[in-house]
């Protein structure tokens, strides 16, 4: 027949109580144990909540997941210098006073395939992970196209409402990355210059940061954006980073295929649009 103590221990185990073998536990010790468990549960819940917030920010950012420092090959002096500047920019976010002091802009400029977008994306990923900074990556040309079509009042796809929502996102996000700025454009149209200039000025007032990525040099960029828009950029604390190293993109036409094509063009045969 079970004793009363055996029955008490069984009841305790069924309720999740620790079996102390009938040993008395002081209230202060028991309280500390429960506090440690409660704190551990709170930390776990906070970590899970933070992870969900970070995932949500990543989901809205439209960043390429491969644009990280881990995937970056630092094989030239310009990339090494750009990474150093990028890491300094990220580390500065630790200082709350720096973040609240004003607006900061990084201009990445150089030829195609030099790693500009990759490093900008790596900065964004780090800021999201470390400081939960909201980020939005957009190509300027796609925004201008959406803006143009938003004036089609006969459209049935609510393009005007969609652009207003996008425009509000551009104003509110902590870090805006604008890629392909003035790509294939020697000068933006006046209304596009005004829209972009106003966007940058409003972000400046709200102490929001930007990264502009362009294939133009700085002189060409000033002409392409127009004076009003470029003056908006001058108001920011600006960091200019030039990319001049080799292209990281794979060659489609290799020297061997180029030589074959050259030989083929010199052979006899039909050649269209020849003038004799």
From TrEMBL:
IstB-like ATP-binding domain: residues covered: 105-225
Bias (Polar residues) ranges: 256-276
Family matches, as SUPFAM superfamilies: P-loop containing nucleoside triphosphate hydrolases
Region (Disordered): 254-276
Record bears the keyword Transmembrane: no
Gene Ontology molecular function terms on file: ATP binding
DNA-binding found in the keyword field: no
Protein name: ATP-binding protein
